Amino acid sequence: MPFSRREDSPSEKTILELLSRSTPDTVRDLPRKDDVLYFQGDEALFLYAVSSGEVLTLLESPYGDPVLWEVLDRYDAVGGFAILLGCPYPATCRALTPARVFGYSRQKVWDLLRNDPGLFESLAKGIGDRLQSFLSRLVYSQQNLEDRLLLGLLYLYRKKIRSAPDRSSPVVLEITRSFLARLSFTTVESTIRVTKKWESEGWLDFPERGLIRLLDIRHFLVKTAHLSMHESPQNPRGREKWDARLNPV
């Protein structure tokens, strides 16, 4: 089976179980960074699941550089929005690192979904969560520079701890400051200036080229507590979630 269950991703768990019971219709290798899986506007033929490596999705624009939508790593699915709605792919998908993806045809996905309507809800929820995350980043694109960079790091940290949930140790993010700048809607120069300041304050460092290490996770969570991607910490439900984040079991 191409996939095993990932216990720490409940919104996509049944999707992965679905895919693991079915043989992929195609396997695509993306051996180099920036290799294209599909372009924005291409006909949506497959729902893809990342088997290894990382890919990213980009919203192309005639008015400037593409906007980075999201980063997808192992077990994430990409192309689900287009498969469900029967529309072209809404964004371009490229390799961030060498990657392999499994593709499942539209017909196969719909046949499997018809056998279990709950799978449709699960796939839609996963898409909705990721769209909400992107819209939150757009909202904060109007905020001050440090908040935008913090939100970018928060997004990457949350993806990282899915596979490395030990919050007592430093977390290493395999990204460049150039990539963080794109994720945070700012310039490389501004990102370097702010992260150097944070390095002098002792809550992150750069162990080697292409790595950012978050040294004090609790301090990082406190600094990002007002930047919820989904819930406001001002309402009771939001406060419960933030209390759980700041006091991990």
From TrEMBL:
Listed A to Z, the keywords are: DNA-binding, Transcription, Transcription regulation
- Domain of life from the UniProt record: Bacteria
List where Basic and acidic residues composition bias occurs. 237-249
Asked whether the UniProt record includes Transcription among its keywords, one would answer yes
Q: What sequence ranges are listed for the domain HTH crp-type?
A: 143-218
Q: Which GO terms describe its biological process?
A: regulation of DNA-templated transcription
Q: Which GO MF terms are attached to this record?
A: DNA binding
Q: Which residue range or ranges hold the Cyclic nucleotide-binding domain?
A: 35-113
Fetch the PROSITE patterns from UniProt: CNMP_BINDING_3 (PS50042), HTH_CRP_2 (PS51063)
Q: Report residue spans for region: Disordered.
A: 230-249
Q: What is this protein called?
A: Crp/Fnr family transcriptional regulator
Q: Which organism is it from?
A: Leptospirillum ferriphilum
